[in-house]
Specification:
The complex is a heterodimer. Chain A is of the alpha/beta class. Chain A folds into 2 domains: about 1-90 and about 180-265, P-loop containing nucleotide triphosphate hydrolases (Rossmann fold), CATH 3.40.50; about 100-175, no CATH class. Chain A is built from 10 helices and 10 strands. Chain A starts with 10 loop residues before the first strand and ends with a helix. By secondary structure, chain B is an all-alpha fold. Chain B has a domain at about 45-260. Helix content of chain B is about 70%, strand content about 5%. In chain B, helix 4 (about 45-70) runs parallel beside helix 8, helix 4 (about 45-70) packs across helix 9 and helix 9 (about 205-215) packs across helix 11. Chain B is globular, with a radius of gyration of 21 Å. The chains are: A alpha/beta, B mainly alpha.
Chain lengths: ~260, ~350
């Protein structure tokens, strides 16, 4: 499959001159790029390039020292992770961050927490609004379970599931929030070829069917070149390339960073 | 064969989300509750009431409260005794100073609410500290509350040594007199409290607690507010513990002093939660039963075996055997009695055909 040539007129999120350092270590230096509404945007780069730090800045977990992030037209320097969640940014993690003591169903239900509003007293009685709300959200969660083909592990504690399925449950938890922007941190790390194909299919389906904008970090170049619309390349915290997969493949700086240069 | 869910198909989510989705479980639990209300009062002796059933039920309620905090929300607390004391003395002061409120349900709820307020206050450090450090901070609350009820005389109505007594108790015109009345009142309140606790932990509030327990950073990133969630757990937990404390004072002891709610009480409830099973309501009951019944059994055992022993010897042996059992238990089944129960149920589902 060649890269999908589509056009995206509206910018959903733009990053301007972001710099982030921890003590004397510069994790990100003067990075700017944008994510268009509806696209699949990939961030690639060698280990330690600052990819995860970039995602952490976008969803408010890290606060960059310089620069600003404009999301849905609102410019901001800082926000808290739960505020990012309230504004429609969901994410998965490089190391699976599921709630291990809870079932698959409960894990995905937590993704809908921002939409569940009934108060303590209704919850204590579990009647009326509390009961209706629980069933209504259960229906939405069941649609996600069906979409991700994980019906058979619905009631299983996630701690007991194999790695590939845990990744899928984590994607389900992020999808349950019905995000506008979905951040995926290495969704295919450590997977075998079939699991990777399944995951690619889910990512493309989410993008096509729900129109969710996706920003993903991935090391598997064939995957990145196949499924993403545009790619940004980081190396040592600096941006060294930005463009469609075909442009990136021909970019000298990127080739140097990945393959090294002869001395 | 006893325990078969074959043929019980769920056709809607409401049926799937029941507390007991399996028919046999429902029959069993309703049977136990009916027997507790109807059959026990017909056969129980005063000893059974005051030394076994009443302590078991009240301490179960306290264990449920602590389990919400430690087992569901993952915040370790050693201040249970102090929160029980707040419940007991707040209830006492309302009962003493507002004669119109001589209704135990109102008095106990007030005790619970005051304990919840104090719980929120001592839960504030939980935003910044976790684990052992939080345990030490709640331990400080225990000592502070012990000091408070020993030194602030108004709270104990200026009685020497803070010893207070209650009598002439009513609930909606029903005079609570004698162990059977006290047992029925406690049983009713514990059943209601257990249903409330179950409803809370199976809904979105319970999921927010468990999310914070399992991975607080991920919980925050998907939108839970850590401080609000933790403080709610402290409040609900302390509410149950406060009600249990008020019951312990009013219905178990009748007259008490601050020593009844000292640090030993905190450890006793924590043992119940750990032995019964963290994050399990049925485990709270099992842990309470274990802690209440084991000393009674150990006490009776030499007599049954026909061994002649001095009472001092028996009480020393009791401590040793009890301590050894707790250690043995934690090694063999760290997830508590509730896990054993779940495994047994799983085995019974398949028995006698293992495949």
């Amino acid at each position: 499959m060649d890269s999908r040539l589509r056009s995206f007129p509206d910018v959903l999120l733009s990053v301007e001159n972001i710099s982030l350092s921890f003590g004397g270590v510069n994790a990100l230096t003067d990075i700017s790029f944008d994510i268009a509404k509806g696209e699949v945007r990939a961030i690639i780069g060698p280990n330690g390039a600052g990819k995860s730090s970039m995602l952490n800045c976008i969803n408010g977990f890290y606060h960059p020292q310089h620069g600003a992030i404009t999301y849905k037209g609102v410019r901001r320097n800082q926000m808290k992770p739960h505020e990012a969640a309230e504004q429609g940014i969901a994410r998965t993690f490089q190391n699976i961050a599921l709630f291990r003591g809870m079932s698959t169903l409960d894990n995905i239900m937590t993704g809908r927490n921002l939409r569940m509003k009934t108060g303590l007293l209704w919850q204590a009685l579990h009647i009326g609004p509390a009961r209706r709300e629980e069933i209504e959200h259960r229906k939405a969660v069941e649609r996600i379970i069906e979409f991700l083909e994980i019906q058979h592990i619905r009631k299983a504690p996630v701690g007991t599931l194999p790695y590939g399925l845990q990744k899928r449950v984590e994607l389900g938890r992020a999808l349950a929030a019905e995000p506008e922007l979905l951040l995926l941190d290495e969704p295919m790390a450590g997977m075998n070829i079939e699991e990777k194909q399944d995951m690619c299919r889910f990512i493309l389906d989410v993008n096509d069917e729900f129109g969710t904008t996706i920003c993903l970090i991935e090391h598997d170049m064939s995957v990145v070149m196949d499924i993403s619309d545009r790619v940004v390349v980081l190396d040592y915290g600096r941006k060294i390339g930005d463009g469609t997969p075909d442009e990136i493949k021909k970019n000298e700086a990127v080739i140097t960073a990945y393959l090294g240069v002869g001395h | 064969m006893l325990y078969r869910e074959a043929g019980q198909f769920k056709t809607d989510y409401a049926a799937d989300q029941q507390i007991f989705p399996i028919l046999q479980d429902r029959i069993f639990v309703f049977g136990v509750i009916a027997a507790a209300f109807a059959i026990v009062p017909a056969i129980a002796s005063e000893y059974l009431y005051t030394e076994i059933l009443i302590p078991f039920l009240i301490l179960s309620l306290a264990a449920i409260g602590l389990n919400i905090l430690v087992g569901y929300c993952g915040q370790v607390s050693l201040g249970t005794g102090g929160f029980m004391a707040v419940g007991a003395y707040a209830a006492y002061n309302l009962w003493l100073r507002v004669p119109e409120a001589n209704n135990l349900v109102v008095v106990f709820l007030f005790g619970g609410l005051m304990a919840a307020a104090v719980g929120i206050l001592f839960g504030l450090p939980s935003l910044r500290i976790k684990g052992f450090y939080l345990a030490v901070a709640t331990l400080a609350s225990q000592f502070f509350l012990d000091w408070l009820f020993a030194r602030v005389k108004w709270l104990t109505n200026y009685t020497p040594s803070g010893s207070v007594a209650v009598g002439d108790l009513h609930v909606f015109g029903w005079r609570i007199d004698g162990p059977a009345d006290r047992y029925l009142l406690i049983l009713g309140m514990v059943v209601v409290a257990t249903i409330v606790a179950k409803n809370l932990v199976r809904g979105h509030i319970g999921r927010s607690w468990m999310a914070i327990r399992d991975m607080d950073i991920a919980a925050e990133i998907i939108g839970f507010r850590p401080l609000r969630t933790k403080l709610l757990a402290f409040a609900v937990s302390s509410f149950f513990i406060g009600v249990a404390g008020a019951m312990w004072g009013f219905l178990r002891l009748g007259s008490w002093e601050p020593l009844a709610f000292d640090i030993n009480r905190s450890f006793q409830i924590l043992f119940m939660v750990i032995i019964g099973g963290l994050g399990s309501l049925v485990g709270s009951f099992m842990g309470a039963a274990f802690i209440v019944l084991t000393p009674v059994l150990l006490n009776q055992l030499p007599g049954w075996l026909g061994v002649n022993m001095s009472t001092a010897m028996i009480s020393h042996l009791e401590f040793m055997v009890f301590g050894a059992m707790i250690v043995f238990f934690l090694i063999v089944e760290p997830h508590g009695l509730a896990r054993l129960w779940a495994v047994a149920k799983e085995k019974l589902r398949l028995w006698p055909f293992p495949h």
